[in-house]
Amino acid sequence: MNRRRNAGIGLLAALLSGLLVYGLFQLQKLQVTRQETVEVVITKQFVEAGKRLTEEDVAYKRIPREGYEKEMLVDLKQAVGMDTVIPLGSNEPILGWKIDRYHLLPADSEATFQIPRDYIRSISNGIRAGDKVTLYLSGENEPSRRIFDSLVTVASVKSSSNVEIDNMKDPNLLSLAEGDKERMYASRRDANGMIEYINLNLTEQQWLQIDSYCKDGLHKLVIAYSPESLQLEEEDR
User: Fold this and answer.
1) Distance from C-alpha of 223 to C-alpha of 157, rounded to nearest angstrom
2) How far apart (Å, rounded) are the C-alpha atoms in residues 75 and 80?
3) Is the pLDDT of residue 120 over 90?
4) Which member of 104, 117, 178, 210 has the lowest number of beta carbons within 10 Å of its beta carbon?
5) Is residue 218 within 8 Å of residue 139, measured between CB atoms?
6) What is the DSSP letter of 164?
7) What DSSP character marks residue 198?
8) How far apart are CA 157 and CA 114, in angstroms?
């Protein structure tokens, strides 16, 4: 009886010892994994540009430490509630410059105004959402001139069917955010329609000035793309 009892105790001790060794091994393995990897925020599935991220869109994922970049987000709170500047792929680590809060919405001192078609003489075909543009005033019996010293941000440019103008295969915002001038140029050559409506982020004073000039029909706007758009984007980054 004692022999059987001692054998049982020995077996139990061996089992507990094995479990302890296994637990220590797993703990050490976890510590090594944490030392060699970094936990970053990723998208669970493909997310299109302009979408506001929710908790259902993002998750944590561990990646090798050597693959970590300082712009990668490491806290879900940094991503939730932000708007995507460019499309994000499934399981893609989110970089800070790829998202923005209220992207393309007006600043505190501004509002977004749709410019009436009869206020416009011409719009550069290459203008896209997110660009900076220069506004000129063209009159019938007087020299044309620039209205504002500062550049104006384009909130959106749309076709007659209310579809955002862009190259859908290679969105301009993607090239703009990455600072790739060649792709930015190429994307503007293959648009999905003609510009019919343009929305600009303007201060109240700027809008009132435009309206006072153009509502009588004697003056019209010429809206030109400014090459400073890309330079300003690079400075922000």
Assistant:
1) 12
2) 9
3) yes
4) 117
5) yes
6) B
7) E
8) 10
Judged against a pLDDT cut of 70, whether residue 121 lies above it is answered with yes
Assigned token pair, 231: 């330079």
Site of tokens 């998208």: 43
Q: How far is CA 113 from the centre of its chain?
A: 22
Q: Is 50 exceeded by the pLDDT of residue 76? A: yes
Query: 129, 103 in Cβ contact below 8 A?
Result: no
Indicate the pLDDT class of residue 48, thresholds 50, 70 and 90: confident
Q: Where are the beta strands (DSSP E) in 129-218?
A: 132-139, 145-146, 152-158, 197-203
Query: Is 135 within 8 Å of 221 (Cβ atoms)?
Result: yes
Task: Give 133's pLDDT tier (boundaries 50, 70, 90).
Answer: very high
Distance CA 71, CA 177 (A): 14
Phi, psi of 47 (to 5 degrees): -125, 125
Give CA–CA dist 57/90, Å, rounded.
10
- Its pTM stands at 0.56
Q: How many CA atoms within 13 Å lie on the side-chain side of 81? A: 5
Token reading at 157: 């440019």
221 touches 124 (CB < 8 A): no
d(CA 219, CA 217): 6
Which residue has 């139990």 as its token pair?
A: 12
Q: Measure the CA–CA gap between 95 and 104, rounded to whole angstroms.
A: 18
Question: Residues 7, 13, 14, 19: is their CA dihedral positive or negative?
Answer: positive
